[in-house]
Amino acid sequence: MITSRGTGRWITPKGWPKAGKTLHDMALREAFEEAGIRGSVNPDPVGQFDYMKYDLPAEAIPSFTVNVYAVEFERMAKNWPERGQRISEWVSPEEAAARVDEPELKKLLLNLPDFIYSK
């Protein structure tokens, strides 16, 4: 789990679609940029949830649907772009669900298959 830079709420790393990149590749990129995670990503999302972005201008549409991808952790980078800008912690799915605000993300975290987080 990481905190957002704007509000300090607990969130999962997430990013924006980019032309020429798959959504799962962007998820892996964001996991590195926001949390320093290096690994491989499953191209199939494990779920999705609706997300309100609170730090956009008032005229922007602040609601988005976020696909969640499982990243198989290989290593933690020593440095990454947003190091020091966020708090990050490894927690159980139950603890992660208790920290997030979005009801759909809570449900997704509580229903992750065992193979995703047990090694």
Automatic annotation (TrEMBL):
Q: Which Pfam families match?
A: NUDIX
Keyword annotations of the record = Hydrolase, Magnesium, Metal-binding
Task: Say if the entry is tagged with keyword Magnesium.
Answer: yes
What sections of the protein cross the membrane? none
Domain Nudix hydrolase: start-end pairs: 1-113
For molecular function, the Gene Ontology terms on record are: metal ion binding; pyrophosphatase activity
Q: What InterPro entries does the record tag this protein with?
A: DDP-like_NUDIX (IPR047198), NUDIX_hydrolase-like_dom_sf (IPR015797), NUDIX_hydrolase_dom (IPR000086)
Q: Which SUPFAM superfamilies match?
A: Nudix (SSF55811)
User: What cellular-component terms does GO give this entry?
Assistant: cytoplasm
Keyword Magnesium found: yes
Cofactor(s) required for function per UniProt: Mg(2+)
Xref: PANTHER family = DIPHOSPHOINOSITOL POLYPHOSPHATE PHOSPHOHYDROLASE, DIPHOSPHOINOSITOL-POLYPHOSPHATE DIPHOSPHATASE
**Name assigned to this protein:** 8-oxo-dGTP pyrophosphatase MutT (NUDIX family)
